[in-house]
Prior knowledge:
By secondary structure, the protein is an alpha/beta fold. It is built from 15 helices and ten strands. Strands 1, 2, 3, 4, 5, 6, 7, 8, 9 and 10 form a ten-stranded mixed sheet that branches.
Amino acid sequence: MISEEDFFASSPTANLVGDYEEGRVMRLFLKVAESRASQPFFYRKMKRICLTVILIITILAMSACLPGPMDGADGSKGIVITVYGFSIMKEPLEKSIFPAFAAKWKAEHGVNVSFITSFAGSETVTNQILQGAPADIAILAIERDADRLVQGGAVKNDWRARPNKGIVNKTPFIILVRKGNPKQINDFPDLAKDGIQLIHPDPTSSGGAQWSILAIYGSELKKSEAASGGQDIPKATQLLRSIWHNVISTPGSAREARTSFETGYGDALITYELEGLTMKQAGEPFDVVIPKATIFSEHPAVMIDRSMTPEKQPVVEAFMKYLWTDEAQQAFVKHHFRSVTNDAFNDANPEFAKIEMPFTVQLFGGWDKAYPDVIEDVFIKQIKTK
């Protein structure tokens, strides 16, 4: 029979339950059940009761951990905004943008604003919202995910009517390698060399992974176009195939891929520039390699208005507008995203790489063509499933 100590040590709510007086009741249940071990029916019944109590207390504890609305200066209730974002949006939002907006709203309106957040791969976040997750705002890795939210009825407003067609920031894709670049990786084609082990997020869950595929494939289109005036599609396809052959791990998001690389897996990682700069700033033993031709990923912000209350909507709308203010755009730059409203903010950051041959998703005709033509027809059908 399992002991009380073993049970609570193995329970996912062990630490949580220990903080509650009700934990004593569950321990009593277990002791009584152990003493009646010769009566299987009784033990099973007591075990079910115990697990039910654990579940109830876990739910109550989790609810207690969520920030609740605080009273404003006029006695009105505060506002809680729920933001879902793709994985690498966490730092600029939580460290800079949320606190600045909350302070601004408090000063101007005397009402407290707090935030609840959830971060994961962009495809995952989108699926969660479509399945009913209570988001007020989504900041996504790719436009296609924003369009899926519109098609699924979660977004009723025209998100492209916002500044810069709804794109809130951008960043180029780079290659991270081990300190000193022992494998001599200097551009995307070097990732196809024998013996290279590459970490790459999963395109089925990560928007960053889809950007990475477009970066690899598009780099050859861009270089061949510059050299001969035409796009060498077979060469681009072969490069993507050869690089994917060297992928040893496909974590669920760009942030998970970075974590995997940090723990020692792989020789290289294709990722957002800001991830490389963040790791460099922390003094971690990695070098950043800038491909000759690479894509700038562009990230949309959308308001999820399918069931938003009239009381909350003005505050959410104000926060959406705030994302394109100079203050917010400079905060993005501080956290190594590039501004989409003012290139002077980007020029002021000497760490940003100069890309020799930059391109965007428009090289493929936008996401409406990039996803079916490259992600589905080339990557999924010709490479991943082979």
